[in-house]
Amino acid sequence: MSALPEKRWTVEEYLAFERASEERHEFINGQIYLMSGASRKHNLIVFNLALALGNQLRGKGCETYLNEMRVKIPSTNNYTYPDVTIVCGEDAELEDDEFDTLLNPILIVEVLSPSTENYDRGKKFQSYRTLASLREYVLVSQDKQQIEHYIRQDDGQWLLSDTTDIDAIVTLPSINCTLKLADVYENINFEAE
């Protein structure tokens, strides 16, 4: 991600700018950052995730959004574009009548890229943890077969499970679904690139 020219933007300025833009930008601490293009592997993994989760969520009253639904983090006034965002149960809470900014995700998935991996693991996750609705955070590597799965515990702590076994199944209790690593990494050849 690269920042636009140095300027302190207001939320209103950001939203007006973003809604008029053909490109996607995240809003972090008063700065606007252009989202870089995703790699082939990244796009394939996001598609595989959507396919695996979408099929399981049919008829369950959940909505799945792929990297075009903005999420607002009220505690920081930041706006992000997760790779996969899911909201279940009650209707999605949206910021305004533009219907393009979600406030209550239950599960967020980020596919790690070299340019965003540290941010996704660090400050971004720190911000996401302030969302009262968020129950699970999933990090999917695009450089190797690995899924890191964080679950919010009843006491507010986050429990990490990490798997690299291609035959493993990650259970996602907040949405009553599973992810098979083999499905997530279908058609991904790590040796070819």
Fold topology:
Layout (H helix, E strand, L loop, with lengths): L1 E2 L7 H10 L4 E4 L2 E4 L5 H18 L4 E5 L3 E4 L4 E3 L3 E5 L12 E2 L4 E6 L4 H5 L1 H6 L7 E6 L5 E6 L5 E6 L5 E4 L4 E4 H4 L9
Parallel strand pairs: 5-8, 9-10
Antiparallel strand pairs: 1-3, 2-3, 4-7, 5-6, 7-9, 10-11, 11-12, 13-14
Strand order of the largest sheet: 4-7-9-10-11-12
Distance between the termini: 22 Å
How many structural domains?
1
Find the CATH superfamily.
Answer: tt1808, chain A
The main β sheet shows up as: 6 strands, mixed
Uncertain spans, ≥5 residues at pLDDT below 50?
A: none
What is this entry, summarized?
By secondary structure, the protein is α+β, with helices and mostly antiparallel strands. It has helices at residues 11-20, 40-57, 117-121, 123-128, 181-184, and strands at residues 2-3, 25-28, 31-34, 62-66, 70-73, 78-80, 84-88, 101-102, 107-112, 136-141, 147-152, 158-163, 169-172, 177-180. It contains 5 helices and 14 strands.
Describe what you observe in this structure.
This protein is of the alpha+beta class and 193 residues long. It has a single domain (38-184), classed as tt1808, chain A, CATH 3.90.1570.10. Helices cover 22% and strands 32% of the residues. It is built from 5 helices and 14 strands. It has helices at residues 11-20, 40-57, 117-121, 123-128, 181-184; strands at residues 2-3, 25-28, 31-34, 62-66, 70-73, 78-80, 84-88, 101-102, 107-112, 136-141, 147-152, 158-163, 169-172, 177-180. It has a 6-stranded mixed beta sheet.
